[in-house]
Amino acid sequence: MKSKIPLGSLFAAAALLALAAAPAFAQSETANGKLKIHVSPKQAYVFVDGKAIRDGSQTIELAAGSHTVGVDNYGYTPQSKDVQITAGKTADLDVTLQASGDKVNGPFGDIELKGHPRAAVLLNGTTPAFFVGHVDEFDNNFLWHQWLLVKPGTYQVTATQKGETIWSGPVTVKAGERVIVDLNHNGAMKTRDFKRGLNMGPEPRFEAGVASAMVPIAPVTAQLSAQSNQVTCGASTELNWKSTDAVEDSISNLGNVAASGQQSVSPTHPTTYELTAKGPGGTVTQSVNVNVNGQPTATLALSQPEIRYHKVGDKVVQDDSATLNWSASNATQVTVQPFGNVTESGSRNVEAAPNQTSSGAINREVTYTMTASNACGGTATRTATLHIVGTIDPAPPVTLASLFYPTAYPERQHPKVGLVSSQESTLAKAAATFKNNEQYDPDNKLMVVGHADIRGPKKYNQQLSERRAEAAKNYLISQGISADKIETKSLGVDDQLTQQQVADLQSKDSQAQPKWMMNKKKATWLAYNRRVDVILEPSGQESTQAYPNDAPDARVLWQRPVPNLKAVESASKQQASGSENAELNHSGN
Known about the structure:
There is one protein chain. By secondary structure, the protein is α+β, with helices and mostly antiparallel strands. It has four domains: 1-218, Carboxypeptidase-like, regulatory domain (Immunoglobulin-like), CATH 2.60.40; 221-293, Immunoglobulin-like (Sandwich); 297-393, Sandwich (Immunoglobulin-like), CATH 2.60.40; 403-587, CATH 3.30.1330.60. It has a six-stranded mixed β-sheet, with no helix packed on it. The chain has a six-stranded mixed β-sheet with strand order 30-29-36-35-32-33, with no helix packed on it. A hairpin with a 2-residue loop joins β29 and β30.
């Protein structure tokens, strides 16, 4: 680009042109084709498959196949095209670049390069995107200026051609200073004054004359901001960024990004996002901090801390409840034990439900534990304790006493006669206590078992015991007990009490034994076997076999001969305070 070139330089240039025309990336002459490329502006530089070739329009010999051709000139928008090379043929390609970028203000320093005039010059990178010109544009400052103007700073300068790095190293430039780098002597450097650079600008990004060139490199700028610098766990914020004159942009935790843009981020912990913008004019970083509130909040409370429970038999007569309320925020998972996973806010009714089944006082504590956590590692735990008090009582007892019948009663002809007044009273007490118990133990039933003494035929006694059991059942029904709660059983003369058993029962009897019973033990033994036992099922509680010694109708029950009907009917109607005629008419044996 110099206006006067010495003869030796002409020969050198001719040699360089011959080298440029030599096959590039060729495998063999028969496998090669050619690319004839025309570029505008004429100083634009050609890259093939990422490797620097040379500047200007030219014909390049290439191996047959597909190649990527890039055309670059600082201050212009680069272009890249894929071309197909056919062996023995020439492909034509025209590339016109469009100017871009604003003017660049000083102050400037200058980098001057010596040697390898056709080599591409890259600043701060090794790809064509960092291309700023070729050496011949920056190697003279005598009669014509050929300046690579940069802002004060340190630049990694790389000279490369045909896939080889000629030299690469850092160059530190000050405003108003020129640094001369000798590529032929391993990058040896010397400095000169460049006072003109102190007052230059604004200058266009590329300016070239017949033998002059000026390329001022624009500094890289970068901006990065967050819509919100404080988020809760799981929430997002929007990052906004913009860079100028950068060819590579990346944001930590995001990777490579466009020169400008926006993106939503949801960090799980305090995070610093750093934008790194790299270009020929340098590397600029900008960072923004996004803090994350990773601590959940949690509340857990009971509507009342103590509730009561009362159970009698199988019946729960008091079963208080309370409401367990909870709420959480900034949480992605909430559990309340013993319920498991729950919604972020809610409530649940909790009942006493004691864990004991035996009778006695209840004094139990149940602790509910709430845990709220999130993806950011935050955890909050709360507890609430419910106090359960009360009692479990057995069902009220059923008072059961065996019933006794006069000899041969009830008769077949008079099945309703024979349950005398004192025995009705005994049975009425049993009915009353059974009904009181029934509301607490609804599964209870009564088994009424009829007996007869050993006198008479077995069949007769079996039927007699059936009538006795049936009479007792009918009376119980009259006292308000449901028929399906009563079962009957007739044993006749089976399962007789022995005389010794009767004697034992008498010895335990709190009532005084009348002389007429003591003197006639066999009659007494027979009287004890003319009875109906009552059994509470399913517990198996049996009626006490205590003879009604002091009852007004005791002798009607006890006497061995069959009482006449009128005497029995009279005994059945008399009040508990009445007395029985000692002299009774008898019939039968």
